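Form P-L/3: holo structure prediction, ligand S-adenosylmethionine.
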Amino acid sequence: MGHGTWIDISEEYINWLCFANAGMLSRGNLYCFDYVMRRLPTEDPVVEIGSFMGLSTNVLTFYMQRYGRRNRLITCDKWVFEGAEPGTTVGDSSISHEAYRAFARETFIRNVRFFSGNRLPHTVEMLSDEFYNAWRSGRRVTDVFGREVQLGGPISFCYIDGNHSYEAAKADFQNTDEMLVRGGFLLFDDSADGSEWEVCRVVREIKAAGRHEVVIRNPNYLFVKK
Ligand SMILES: C[S@@+](CC[C@H](N)C(=O)[O-])C[C@H]1O[C@@H](n2cnc3c(N)ncnc32)[C@H](O)[C@@H]1O
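OUTPUT (holo model):
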């Protein structure tokens, strides 16, 4: 969750979704998603990095449907969590990190099949670096729902919510920006001013470079490419 105040446009469906679907959704992001989906510049794919148990994925499909957006939604996650060393258990429980990972992955699939069944995204089981390498090479891959998806080409919007370290967030930005169309959008989770996440440094650098314009801070940063 970010710092400061923000506009929260949660509505009935979003509240019910958040009751049932575990996840980390900064409610201010709803305003950004709504804004973007009203204004997507092209029909090129929308990308999400870091899907966890599908909460933001399901929010994205909701707004895409609301505004009749036919762009493909392609998400990536490998469900490899920080601090989850193989062969160790989750704290003092008897649950292994392998089992926890499998649970999170299965829960993602179940949540997304349930809430976005009529507008299923493509979810690729890769870290963002591998994902963008595959994207760059125009690979055809099988998603976690067992469907083939063709990667490659321009991107109209990316929601960046994977690894929040400076190096990883910067790589996500650079890789995305290489594919992002002019007028395309970028939203960085946990980027609010005053937040401790290293992604804030990436955001400061983007602002300083001047090739993208800040369109919303609610409190996370939404940029448009000039
Ligand atoms: C903060 S959570 C995402 C929350 C999610 N968007 C939601 O709505 O609940 C971060 C997710 O990013 C994934 N992740 C971490 N590093 C990643 C990377 N390099 N590429 C893709 N996903 C990554 C993790 O497995 C985790 O599921």
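COMMENT: The domain at 12-81+107-225 is CATH 3.40.50.150 (Rossmann fold).
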